[in-house]
């Protein structure tokens, strides 16, 4: 995950740690490396510019204290700024509402929506001991409903059946009634994906959002898409009040730029990261831990 970025940055870190003095010139050298590393990782250019400007400002302005070497202090600045870039503190899933807490899953086809719905069901069932129901409103691909049924069973959660003949809104309403009368804590609503952002899709998901009033609307996006991931996230964020983003396939050889810029560009927090195809391959996203990992 983010291997190139990690390699490049850890080279910078190694050099810096040995520096006894921070000068304008070695800051410039360091920033050049950081800028290259980020661009190579496919981080959006304006994000890179702002990031390096902030690191520079903090590095030049900082007092070097205690037993830290100046080089280490500088590395600390990069680390904190990286974490801040990805959102700073982790933002957990919000389920604080009258049950069932409804979570709407949105995203393009192939992003990993159905898989993520089941992974989330599993995480909530196992770790938080929640009673979870899943439902598919994807009436366009009959296989999608069957797929959710299969993965929900793997997750140990309950599945609410739907049929391609039904209307998405009707399915959603029935599922909410069922979840309510059977005392479910959480209802995860998988929706139809399209190959690209189109108006009909946006309208449908807006209608679902209006009817369901979910406490969480998560946008699931494939991190391997790099810059495109950020653009699609922004398009969705413009039409739907997203409460969070799930970055999938962070285990692939993604250059990882999406992880670094999606927060900055959309303003929506990354709440989870998909790290394998398996049912337990979903982790709550923690910007600070991620920054540590990236810096090796
Ligand atoms: P949907 O069309 O958005 O519902 O996408 P799917 O859930 O069907 O996922 C598409 C493909 O991506 C499937 O082969 C999944 O196994 C795979 N996938 C989803 N999330 C991850 C992940 O975090 N890592 C990896 N390696 N594969 C994933």
From TrEMBL:
| GN (gene name) | ffh
Keyword entries, A-Z: Cytoplasm, GTP-binding, Hydrolase, Nucleotide-binding, Ribonucleoprotein, RNA-binding, Signal recognition particle
Catalysed reactions listed for this entry: GTP + H2O = GDP + phosphate + H(+)
Q: Which GO terms describe its cellular component?
A: signal recognition particle
Q: Please, one GO biological process term?
A: SRP-dependent cotranslational protein targeting to membrane
Location in or out of the cell: Cytoplasm
What EC number(s) does this enzyme carry? Answer: 3.6.5.4
Q: Which species does the entry assign this protein to?
A: Thiomonas bhubaneswarensis
Quote the protein name from its UniProt record.
Answer: Signal recognition particle protein
Q: Does the keyword DNA-binding apply?
A: no
Subunit annotation: Part of the signal recognition particle protein translocation system, which is composed of SRP and FtsY. SRP is a ribonucleoprotein composed of Ffh and a 4.5S RNA molecule.
State the family named in the UniProt similarity comment for this chain: Belongs to the GTP-binding SRP family. SRP54 subfamily.
Q: Which residue range or ranges hold the SRP54-type proteins GTP-binding domain?
A: 269-282
Comment on protein domains = Composed of three domains: the N-terminal N domain, which is responsible for interactions with the ribosome, the central G domain, which binds GTP, and the C-terminal M domain, which binds the RNA and the signal sequence of the RNC.
What does this protein's UniProt record list under function?
Answer: Involved in targeting and insertion of nascent membrane proteins into the cytoplasmic membrane. Binds to the hydrophobic signal sequence of the ribosome-nascent chain (RNC) as it emerges from the ribosomes. The SRP-RNC complex is then targeted to the cytoplasmic membrane where it interacts with the SRP receptor FtsY. Interaction with FtsY leads to the transfer of the RNC complex to the Sec translocase for insertion into the membrane, the hydrolysis of GTP by both Ffh and FtsY, and the dissociation of the SRP-FtsY complex into the individual components.
Q: Which residues take part in binding GTP?
A: 107-114, 190-194, 248-251
Q: Does the keyword Glycosyltransferase apply?
A: no
For molecular function, the Gene Ontology terms on record are: 7S RNA binding; GTP binding; GTPase activity
């Amino acid at each position: 995950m983010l291997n190139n970025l990690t390699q490049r940055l850890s080279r910078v870190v190694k050099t810096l740690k040995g520096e006894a003095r921070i000068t304008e010139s070695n800051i410039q050298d360091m920033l050049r490396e950081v800028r290259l590393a980020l661009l190579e990782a496919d981080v959006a250019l304006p994000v890179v510019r702002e990031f390096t400007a902030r690191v520079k400002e903090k590095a030049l302005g900082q007092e070097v204290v205690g037993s830290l070497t100046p080089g280490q202090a500088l590395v600390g600045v990069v680390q904190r700024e990286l974490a801040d870039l990805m959102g700073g503190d982790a933002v957990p899933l919000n389920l604080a509402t009258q049950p069932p807490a409804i979570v709407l899953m949105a995203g393009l086809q192939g992003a990993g929506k159905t898989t993520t719905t089941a992974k989330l069901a599993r995480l909530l069932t196992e770790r938080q001991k929640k009673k979870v129901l899943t439902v598919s409103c994807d009436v366009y691909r009959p296989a999608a409903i069957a797929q959710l049924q299969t993965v929900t069973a793997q997750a140990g959660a309950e599945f609410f059946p739907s049929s391609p003949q039904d209307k998405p809104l009707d399915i959603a309403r029935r599922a909410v009634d069922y979840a309510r009368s059977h005392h479910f804590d959480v209802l995860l609503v998988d929706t139809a994906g399209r190959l690209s952002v189109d108006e009909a899709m946006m309208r449908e998901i807006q209608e679902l959002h209006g009817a369901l009033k979910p406490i969480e609307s998560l946008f699931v996006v494939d991190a391997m898409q790099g810059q495109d991931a950020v653009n699609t996230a922004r398009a969705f964020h413009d039409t739907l009040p997203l409460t969070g983003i799930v970055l999938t396939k962070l285990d692939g050889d993604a250059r990882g730029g999406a992880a670094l810029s999606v927060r900055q560009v959309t303003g929506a927090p990354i709440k989870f990261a998909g790290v394998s195809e398996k049912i337990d391959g979903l982790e709550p996203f923690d910007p600070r831990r991620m920054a540590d990992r990236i810096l090796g």
